[in-house]
Write a structure and sequence with these properties.
Layout: E1 2-7, E2 20-25, E3 28-32, H1 39-46, E4 56-58, H2 64-82, E5 90-94, H3 96-109, H4 112-115, E6 122-126, E7 132-135, E8 138-144, E9 153-160, E10 163-167, H5 178-181, E11 186-190, H6 198-201, H7 211-221, E12 225-229, H8 239-247, E13 254-256, E14 263-265
Parallel strand pairs: 3-4, 4-5, 5-6, 10-11, 11-12, 12-13
Antiparallel strand pairs: 1-2, 1-14, 2-3, 7-8, 8-9, 9-10
Helix pairs in contact: 2-3
Length: 266
């Protein structure tokens, strides 16, 4: 399996796209979040991933930098279903409140012909805390991250051969996630900025972590690979070297600071 990073940035970036990515295996691609707009379509095109090849989408929470790109995906998928260009059905996995919001937004923003596909061939699949779903031949366990802001779900992916990938969403780690995150082969975690620049970017006021915070956590949890995303973009030209220099002081596994459009083998 591989991960194609379509965007690495937080909500207000202008030098990169908002955080979202595609998990691809022999069984097909799965999109996680959509960023904040129609750029999701150009990012997929740049990655060589046809929108019509995506039949499974996970949406973590309702913030616009994760949600609005999904509305564009729904529009394209429904249009292509109507024109005979999309084969099969599409499945969008989200918690109940978010599924209801997606339906409401679709009814408000898409035309009637497109909306008719929702519930017919576009399925809004509600997931519960701790629920397991087999998607494209792999088991995903969804969990509530315990957000103090918008309700948000992460997931644990069974990569096979006893290997696990855990996505903690875009907020700081909560102890309720330990059962999923501890000992993970891959941990996907937000890092809003460098610890040394916390007085500039104020991550804690926005309920986010620093690079140091995320790396200390991964070290404590015995994680093998830590992938940092959902960052600021003011250091974009030197982000990798700066984040690595800080992070490797606290985490001794393999540290990944991807750029937009990077492809990583898991």
């Amino acid at each position: 399996m591989k991960i194609t990073i379509l965007g690495t940035g937080n909500a207000q970036v202008t030098e990169c796209y908002n955080t979202c990515y595609v998990l691809s295996s022999e069984e097909g691609p799965l999109l996680v979040d959509g960023g904040g707009g129609s750029m999701i379509l150009s990012r997929l095109k740049q990655a060589g991933i046809e929108a019509d090849s995506i039949h499974h989408i996970i949406v973590t929470h309702k913030h616009i930098d994760h949600l609005l790109g999904i509305i564009w995906m729904m529009r394209v998928i429904c249009q292509n279903m109507n024109s005979g260009k999309y084969e099969g059905d599409a499945y969008i996995y989200a918690h109940k409140e978010l599924s209801e919001m997606l339906l409401t937004l679709a009814e408000m923003l898409l035309n009637k012909k497109e909306v008719k596909q929702i519930g017919k061939r576009v399925h809004l699949v509600t997931v519960e805390d701790g629920e397991k779903k087999t998607i494209l031949g792999h088991e995903y366990t969804f969990f509530d991250i315990g957000s103090t802001k918008a309700k948000q779900y992460g997931y644990m992916l069974d990569l096979g051969d006893g290997r696990r990938l855990t996505c903690c969403g875009d907020e700081p780690y909560n102890e309720r996630e330990e059962v999923y995150a501890k000992g993970s082969d891959w941990l996907l975690h937000e890092a809003f900025c460098l610890n040394g620049q916390a007085d500039i970017f104020h991550p804690y006021e926005k309920h986010h972590s620093t690079v140091k915070d995320a790396c200390e956590l991964a070290e404590k949890l015995g994680v093998k690979n830590l992938l940092l995303y959902h960052t600021e973009d003011k250091n974009i030209k030197h982000r990798q070297e700066l984040y690595r220099a800080e992070g490797e002081q606290y985490f001794h596994g393999k540290l990944w600071i991807p750029e937009d459009m990077d492809v990583i083998e898991l």
